[in-house]
Amino acid sequence: LVVVPPKSAEVTRIGKRKSLIRVVGLGSELDLQWRTAANTRGQPPILQAQTSIVVDFTEETVELTALQRFQMTGSVNRVTVQLPQGFRVLSVLGKSVKTNYTVNARNRATVEFTESQTDGTPTEITWTLQRKFPEGGGDLTLQGFDVEHAKVQSGDVDIVRVQGLRVDRPDTDNVAVGQIRPALFTAPRLVRERPLSSAYRFTQQPFRLNLRVSHIQPQVSVDPTIRLSISEEKIVLNASFDVDVSEEGGTVRNLEILWPGWKSAGWTILPLTAAGVIEKRTVDAKNDASPIRLRLTGRRGGKFTVALEAERTIAAGKNGVIIRLPVL
Q1: Which of the residues 27, 77, 294, 310 has the least number of beta carbons within 10 Å of its own beta carbon?
Q2: Rounded to an integer, what distance in angstroms lies between the CA atom of residue 262 and that of residue 310?
Q3: pLDDT tens column, 220-260
Protein backbone atom coordinates (compact mmCIF):
# COMPACT_ATOMS: atom_id res chain seq x y z
CA LEU A 1 0.00 0.00 0.00
CA VAL A 2 1.03 3.59 -0.67
CA VAL A 3 -0.15 5.74 2.25
CA VAL A 4 -1.00 9.40 1.63
CA PRO A 5 -0.82 11.10 5.06
CA PRO A 6 -1.87 14.67 5.95
CA LYS A 7 0.63 17.47 5.32
CA SER A 8 1.66 17.51 9.01
CA ALA A 9 2.74 13.88 8.92
CA GLU A 10 5.67 11.97 7.46
CA VAL A 11 5.90 8.32 6.51
CA THR A 12 8.99 6.16 7.03
CA ARG A 13 9.08 2.65 5.63
CA ILE A 14 10.16 -0.10 8.04
CA GLY A 15 11.06 -3.17 6.08
CA LYS A 16 8.84 -4.38 3.24
CA ARG A 17 5.49 -4.59 5.05
CA LYS A 18 5.44 -1.80 7.65
CA SER A 19 5.41 2.01 7.69
CA LEU A 20 5.92 4.37 10.63
CA ILE A 21 3.73 7.50 10.53
CA ARG A 22 4.89 10.52 12.57
CA VAL A 23 2.32 13.27 13.10
CA VAL A 24 3.07 16.80 14.32
CA GLY A 25 0.36 18.82 16.14
CA LEU A 26 -2.21 16.02 16.20
CA GLY A 27 -5.77 17.25 16.71
CA SER A 28 -8.83 15.33 17.73
CA GLU A 29 -9.05 13.52 14.40
CA LEU A 30 -6.60 11.88 12.01
CA ASP A 31 -7.69 10.97 8.48
CA LEU A 32 -5.53 8.68 6.34
CA GLN A 33 -5.90 7.75 2.68
CA TRP A 34 -4.23 4.90 0.87
CA ARG A 35 -4.14 3.35 -2.55
CA THR A 36 -2.77 0.17 -4.04
CA ALA A 37 0.69 0.61 -5.59
CA ALA A 38 0.97 -0.45 -9.23
CA ASN A 39 2.57 -3.85 -9.57
CA THR A 40 4.81 -3.69 -12.64
CA ARG A 41 6.67 -6.92 -11.90
CA GLY A 42 6.58 -9.16 -14.95
CA GLN A 43 5.06 -6.44 -17.12
CA PRO A 44 6.84 -4.63 -19.97
CA PRO A 45 8.02 -1.11 -19.09
CA ILE A 46 5.98 1.90 -20.22
CA LEU A 47 8.10 4.54 -21.96
CA GLN A 48 7.31 8.14 -22.89
CA ALA A 49 9.60 10.37 -24.99
CA GLN A 50 9.74 14.12 -25.51
CA THR A 51 12.14 15.23 -28.29
CA SER A 52 13.39 18.77 -28.91
CA ILE A 53 15.28 19.23 -32.19
CA VAL A 54 17.31 22.28 -33.19
CA VAL A 55 18.25 22.68 -36.88
CA ASP A 56 21.28 24.83 -37.70
CA PHE A 57 23.06 25.56 -40.99
CA THR A 58 26.59 26.33 -42.08
CA GLU A 59 27.72 26.97 -45.62
CA GLU A 60 28.43 23.28 -46.14
CA THR A 61 26.39 21.36 -43.56
CA VAL A 62 23.04 20.93 -41.84
CA GLU A 63 23.38 20.12 -38.13
CA LEU A 64 20.74 18.60 -35.88
CA THR A 65 20.95 18.74 -32.10
CA ALA A 66 18.22 16.69 -30.44
CA LEU A 67 17.48 16.47 -26.73
CA GLN A 68 15.34 13.47 -25.81
CA ARG A 69 13.71 13.28 -22.38
CA PHE A 70 12.38 9.94 -21.20
CA GLN A 71 9.85 9.07 -18.49
CA MET A 72 9.33 5.41 -17.72
CA THR A 73 7.32 3.02 -15.60
CA GLY A 74 9.23 -0.15 -14.93
CA SER A 75 12.90 -0.83 -15.55
CA VAL A 76 14.68 0.15 -18.79
CA ASN A 77 18.35 -0.50 -19.52
CA ARG A 78 18.45 0.53 -23.18
CA VAL A 79 16.50 2.44 -25.83
CA THR A 80 16.39 2.02 -29.60
CA VAL A 81 15.93 5.18 -31.66
CA GLN A 82 15.23 5.52 -35.39
CA LEU A 83 17.80 8.00 -36.73
CA PRO A 84 17.05 10.59 -39.44
CA GLN A 85 17.87 9.41 -42.95
CA GLY A 86 20.92 11.00 -44.59
CA PHE A 87 22.52 12.20 -41.36
CA ARG A 88 25.59 10.82 -39.62
CA VAL A 89 25.98 10.76 -35.85
CA LEU A 90 28.66 13.04 -34.39
CA SER A 91 27.99 12.42 -30.70
CA VAL A 92 25.61 10.79 -28.22
CA LEU A 93 25.74 12.26 -24.72
CA GLY A 94 23.88 11.75 -21.46
CA LYS A 95 24.58 11.47 -17.76
CA SER A 96 23.47 7.83 -17.66
CA VAL A 97 24.46 6.90 -21.23
CA LYS A 98 27.29 4.55 -22.18
CA THR A 99 29.74 6.01 -24.69
CA ASN A 100 29.39 3.13 -27.16
CA TYR A 101 26.24 2.59 -29.21
CA THR A 102 25.26 0.47 -32.22
CA VAL A 103 23.45 1.34 -35.45
CA ASN A 104 21.87 -1.46 -37.48
CA ALA A 105 21.18 -1.71 -41.22
CA ARG A 106 17.78 -0.04 -40.76
CA ASN A 107 19.47 3.06 -39.29
CA ARG A 108 18.26 2.31 -35.76
CA ALA A 109 20.61 3.20 -32.93
CA THR A 110 20.60 1.27 -29.65
CA VAL A 111 21.89 3.19 -26.65
CA GLU A 112 22.56 1.46 -23.33
CA PHE A 113 22.38 3.10 -19.92
CA THR A 114 25.09 2.74 -17.30
CA GLU A 115 22.41 1.36 -14.97
CA SER A 116 18.75 0.49 -15.37
CA GLN A 117 16.45 3.50 -15.34
CA THR A 118 13.46 2.91 -13.08
CA ASP A 119 10.05 4.41 -12.25
CA GLY A 120 9.92 8.18 -12.37
CA THR A 121 13.58 8.60 -13.24
CA PRO A 122 13.93 11.46 -15.77
CA THR A 123 16.58 10.44 -18.30
CA GLU A 124 18.06 12.52 -21.12
CA ILE A 125 20.02 11.78 -24.30
CA THR A 126 21.51 14.52 -26.49
CA TRP A 127 22.20 13.66 -30.12
CA THR A 128 24.33 15.65 -32.57
CA LEU A 129 24.01 14.71 -36.25
CA GLN A 130 25.20 16.25 -39.49
CA ARG A 131 24.72 16.03 -43.25
CA LYS A 132 25.87 17.98 -46.30
CA PHE A 133 24.00 21.16 -47.14
CA PRO A 134 21.59 20.68 -50.08
CA GLU A 135 23.51 21.68 -53.21
CA GLY A 136 22.43 25.21 -54.12
CA GLY A 137 19.63 24.93 -51.58
CA GLY A 138 16.66 22.65 -52.14
CA ASP A 139 14.40 20.31 -50.21
CA LEU A 140 15.24 19.04 -46.75
CA THR A 141 13.13 16.37 -45.03
CA LEU A 142 13.29 16.05 -41.25
CA GLN A 143 12.11 12.90 -39.53
CA GLY A 144 13.36 10.30 -37.11
CA PHE A 145 14.09 10.09 -33.36
CA ASP A 146 11.21 7.62 -33.11
CA VAL A 147 11.75 5.64 -29.89
CA GLU A 148 10.94 1.95 -30.15
CA HIS A 149 8.12 0.78 -27.83
CA ALA A 150 7.41 4.31 -26.55
CA LYS A 151 3.69 4.69 -25.86
CA VAL A 152 3.59 8.50 -26.02
CA GLN A 153 5.87 10.64 -28.19
CA SER A 154 5.84 14.33 -29.04
CA GLY A 155 8.33 17.12 -29.59
CA ASP A 156 9.30 20.28 -31.39
CA VAL A 157 11.63 21.39 -34.20
CA ASP A 158 13.34 24.79 -33.91
CA ILE A 159 14.97 26.34 -37.01
CA VAL A 160 17.90 28.65 -36.24
CA ARG A 161 17.87 31.90 -38.21
CA VAL A 162 20.89 32.13 -40.53
CA GLN A 163 21.57 35.29 -42.50
CA GLY A 164 21.16 34.76 -46.22
CA LEU A 165 18.98 31.66 -45.94
CA ARG A 166 15.24 31.31 -46.27
CA VAL A 167 13.66 28.17 -44.80
CA ASP A 168 10.03 27.57 -45.77
CA ARG A 169 7.56 24.76 -45.36
CA PRO A 170 6.11 24.08 -48.84
CA ASP A 171 3.26 21.86 -47.65
CA THR A 172 1.02 21.92 -44.58
CA ASP A 173 -0.92 18.70 -45.17
CA ASN A 174 0.63 16.83 -42.23
CA VAL A 175 -1.79 17.53 -39.38
CA ALA A 176 0.57 15.85 -36.90
CA VAL A 177 3.09 18.70 -37.41
CA GLY A 178 1.99 22.27 -36.73
CA GLN A 179 3.82 25.59 -36.76
CA ILE A 180 4.19 27.41 -33.44
CA ARG A 181 5.71 30.69 -32.29
CA PRO A 182 9.53 30.47 -32.23
CA ALA A 183 9.53 31.83 -28.67
CA LEU A 184 7.86 28.63 -27.48
CA PHE A 185 10.84 26.29 -28.03
CA THR A 186 11.30 23.81 -25.19
CA ALA A 187 15.08 23.32 -25.30
CA PRO A 188 16.56 26.84 -24.98
CA ARG A 189 19.99 25.63 -23.91
CA LEU A 190 20.39 23.89 -27.27
CA VAL A 191 19.92 27.17 -29.16
CA ARG A 192 22.66 29.05 -27.27
CA GLU A 193 20.61 32.26 -27.32
CA ARG A 194 20.52 32.38 -31.12
CA PRO A 195 17.34 33.68 -32.77
CA LEU A 196 14.96 31.28 -34.45
CA SER A 197 13.30 31.77 -37.83
CA SER A 198 10.50 29.27 -37.26
CA ALA A 199 9.39 26.44 -34.99
CA TYR A 200 7.14 23.40 -35.31
CA ARG A 201 5.57 20.89 -32.96
CA PHE A 202 4.75 17.24 -33.67
CA THR A 203 2.28 15.22 -31.64
CA GLN A 204 3.14 11.70 -32.68
CA GLN A 205 5.80 9.47 -34.20
CA PRO A 206 6.74 8.88 -36.91
CA PHE A 207 6.59 12.53 -37.97
CA ARG A 208 7.71 14.13 -41.23
CA LEU A 209 8.56 17.79 -41.80
CA ASN A 210 9.37 18.92 -45.35
CA LEU A 211 11.40 22.12 -45.61
CA ARG A 212 12.67 24.13 -48.57
CA VAL A 213 16.01 25.88 -48.10
CA SER A 214 17.05 28.67 -50.48
CA HIS A 215 19.60 31.47 -50.59
CA ILE A 216 18.17 34.98 -50.43
CA GLN A 217 19.19 37.19 -53.37
CA PRO A 218 21.79 39.56 -51.88
CA GLN A 219 21.29 43.32 -51.90
CA VAL A 220 24.77 44.81 -52.29
CA SER A 221 26.05 48.38 -52.41
CA VAL A 222 29.68 49.39 -52.99
CA ASP A 223 31.50 52.61 -52.06
CA PRO A 224 34.86 52.71 -53.93
CA THR A 225 37.91 54.74 -52.98
CA ILE A 226 40.77 54.77 -55.51
CA ARG A 227 44.10 56.49 -54.92
CA LEU A 228 46.72 57.03 -57.62
CA SER A 229 50.31 57.76 -56.68
CA ILE A 230 52.08 59.17 -59.77
CA SER A 231 55.80 59.70 -60.17
CA GLU A 232 57.99 60.25 -63.23
CA GLU A 233 58.54 56.53 -63.64
CA LYS A 234 55.39 54.73 -62.51
CA ILE A 235 51.82 54.87 -61.28
CA VAL A 236 50.66 52.97 -58.20
CA LEU A 237 46.93 52.26 -57.84
CA ASN A 238 45.33 51.50 -54.47
CA ALA A 239 41.66 50.60 -54.73
CA SER A 240 39.49 50.07 -51.67
CA PHE A 241 35.90 48.86 -52.03
CA ASP A 242 33.60 49.22 -49.00
CA VAL A 243 30.91 46.59 -49.46
CA ASP A 244 27.57 46.69 -47.65
CA VAL A 245 25.32 43.63 -47.88
CA SER A 246 21.92 44.34 -46.38
CA GLU A 247 21.21 42.15 -43.35
CA GLU A 248 17.79 41.41 -44.79
CA GLY A 249 19.15 40.80 -48.28
CA GLY A 250 21.19 37.64 -48.14
CA THR A 251 24.94 37.02 -48.14
CA VAL A 252 27.75 36.80 -50.72
CA ARG A 253 30.65 34.39 -51.12
CA ASN A 254 32.08 35.49 -54.47
CA LEU A 255 32.73 38.94 -55.96
CA GLU A 256 34.14 40.15 -59.29
CA ILE A 257 36.25 43.18 -60.13
CA LEU A 258 35.79 44.39 -63.70
CA TRP A 259 38.94 45.87 -65.18
CA PRO A 260 39.09 44.96 -68.89
CA GLY A 261 42.41 45.55 -70.65
CA TRP A 262 44.44 45.99 -67.45
CA LYS A 263 47.35 43.86 -68.66
CA SER A 264 47.50 45.31 -72.18
CA ALA A 265 47.56 48.76 -70.57
CA GLY A 266 50.76 47.77 -68.74
CA TRP A 267 49.39 47.14 -65.23
CA THR A 268 50.79 44.53 -62.88
CA ILE A 269 48.45 43.36 -60.12
CA LEU A 270 50.37 43.14 -56.84
CA PRO A 271 50.06 40.16 -54.46
CA LEU A 272 47.67 40.36 -51.53
CA THR A 273 49.47 41.88 -48.56
CA ALA A 274 46.97 40.34 -46.12
CA ALA A 275 44.24 37.78 -46.68
CA GLY A 276 41.61 39.72 -44.74
CA VAL A 277 38.19 38.69 -46.01
CA ILE A 278 39.58 37.26 -49.26
CA GLU A 279 40.28 33.54 -49.28
CA LYS A 280 41.39 33.32 -52.91
CA ARG A 281 41.90 35.71 -55.81
CA THR A 282 41.88 34.46 -59.39
CA VAL A 283 43.55 36.60 -62.09
CA ASP A 284 43.62 35.40 -65.70
CA ALA A 285 46.71 37.14 -67.10
CA LYS A 286 46.19 35.53 -70.53
CA ASN A 287 42.74 37.06 -70.90
CA ASP A 288 42.63 40.49 -69.29
CA ALA A 289 39.04 40.97 -70.46
CA SER A 290 37.86 38.43 -67.88
CA PRO A 291 36.96 39.66 -64.38
CA ILE A 292 39.23 39.38 -61.37
CA ARG A 293 37.42 36.83 -59.19
CA LEU A 294 37.42 37.05 -55.41
CA ARG A 295 36.36 34.19 -53.15
CA LEU A 296 35.64 35.34 -49.62
CA THR A 297 36.51 33.46 -46.44
CA GLY A 298 32.87 32.52 -46.00
CA ARG A 299 29.41 33.73 -46.86
CA ARG A 300 29.40 37.32 -45.66
CA GLY A 301 26.77 39.90 -44.90
CA GLY A 302 26.94 43.35 -43.40
CA LYS A 303 29.89 45.65 -44.05
CA PHE A 304 33.40 44.66 -45.11
CA THR A 305 36.22 45.93 -47.36
CA VAL A 306 38.16 44.36 -50.22
CA ALA A 307 41.27 45.92 -51.73
CA LEU A 308 43.28 45.80 -54.95
CA GLU A 309 46.79 47.12 -55.60
CA ALA A 310 48.47 47.46 -58.99
CA GLU A 311 51.28 49.41 -60.65
CA ARG A 312 52.49 50.32 -64.14
CA THR A 313 55.51 52.07 -65.54
CA ILE A 314 55.42 55.32 -67.53
CA ALA A 315 57.31 55.23 -70.77
CA ALA A 316 59.91 57.97 -71.10
CA GLY A 317 58.88 60.92 -73.25
CA LYS A 318 55.13 60.30 -72.95
CA ASN A 319 53.10 63.46 -72.46
CA GLY A 320 49.96 61.75 -71.06
CA VAL A 321 48.48 58.46 -69.90
CA ILE A 322 44.91 57.22 -70.19
CA ILE A 323 43.87 55.33 -67.05
CA ARG A 324 40.86 53.04 -66.87
CA LEU A 325 39.83 52.28 -63.27
CA PRO A 326 38.62 48.96 -61.84
CA VAL A 327 34.98 48.56 -60.83
CA LEU A 328 33.52 46.12 -58.31
Answers
A1: 27
A2: 9
A3: 899 999 999 988 888 999 999 999 988 776 788 889 999 99
